[in-house]
Structure formats: structure tokens, C-alpha cells
Amino acid sequence: MALWNKQDPLPAKSEAGPIPVPAAAPVPKHEESYPMAMMTREEPALGGSSDLLLGAGAEFEGKLTFKGTVRIDAKFTGTIVTNDVLVVGEHARIDAEITCGTVVVQGEVNGNIKAKNAVEVHRTAKVRGSIETRQLMVEKGSLFQGQVKMATDEKTPAVGKPAAAPGTAALQ
Questions:
Q1: In 44-167, where do the E strands start and end?
Q2: Global pTM?
Q3: Residue 25 has pLDDT above 80, yes or no
Q4: Rounded to an integer, what distance in angstroms lies between the CA atom of residue 112 and that of residue 143?
Q5: Are 132 and 115 in contact (CB under 8 A)?
């Protein structure tokens, strides 16, 4: 009997007559999740977003583009491009150039990261490559080998740079 079939087993044959046949189990809807599911995805509806998990043990190669949030716990080689959120899980190994809105790294990334909003490097992370972002968080215990370029809004002066007086230019 399959794990997802939650019907009781058929009753033992009795002397009283034929074995009753149970009604067919309802077909589960797409929204239901199963404990063993490795990938879930909500189909975008007219510009909506999707959530996707690329599970441990899988290997992917190529260019990944998406909307919404994607968590990778697999091995990926290539390029990743989105304006949304990429989560690199603890068991992931990413050998890619990454261009995203926000990147959360808990696993291993070998390649450059460009994030429009923020990059989070957690204690279990290993990042080898340059990071370019507006906001950066690096936890104690993580490994980071590379360079950081912090982009700033034009309205806000960068940390460590004096604000220019009106009518003058700031040294860069």
C-alpha cells in the first residue's frame, strides 16, 4: 500500500457475504504537501510568483531564471538571474555567477554575487568570489574569500565618505 493512500486495509473475508469495496480515495489537490516532496511550486497566475526547492542529491547545469523565492540544496553550475530571492541551502554547492534581488547563503558558492538589495552570509556558508550589494551581513564562523563592493543610493553618502557641500563635488 502506498504511503499517501490513507485508507484502512480491506477487512478480512467473512462468512456473512462479499467483502465490501471501499469508495475510491479522493484525488489530492495540488496545494497539499507530502512529507517526502522534494519540489513544490505554485504556478504563476498572470505575473504571480513561484516558490521552488531544488533538493539535495540533485545536480543541475545551465541558466536558472525565476520569479519568487527559490531554495537550492543541490549542486548547480551555470548562471542564476532573478530580481527576487535565492536561498542557497546548507547542503548546496553553487558554481555560478549570481545576479539576484536578495541572496541568502547557508551553503557553498563559488562565483560572483550581484544583489540589488542584500546578501546574507550565514555561519555555515562558504563564499569564494566577489560580492556587490547595498547591504551585506556576514555571520561569525562563515568563510568569505573575495572582494566586496557596497553600492549606495545617490541620496545617501557612503559610510566613510564625507558628504559634499552644496555646489561642490565629493572625491571618489
A1: 50-54, 59-65, 68-72, 75-81, 85-88, 93-105, 108-110, 113-121, 126-128, 131-133, 135-138, 143-145, 148-150
A2: 0.61
A3: no
A4: 15
A5: yes
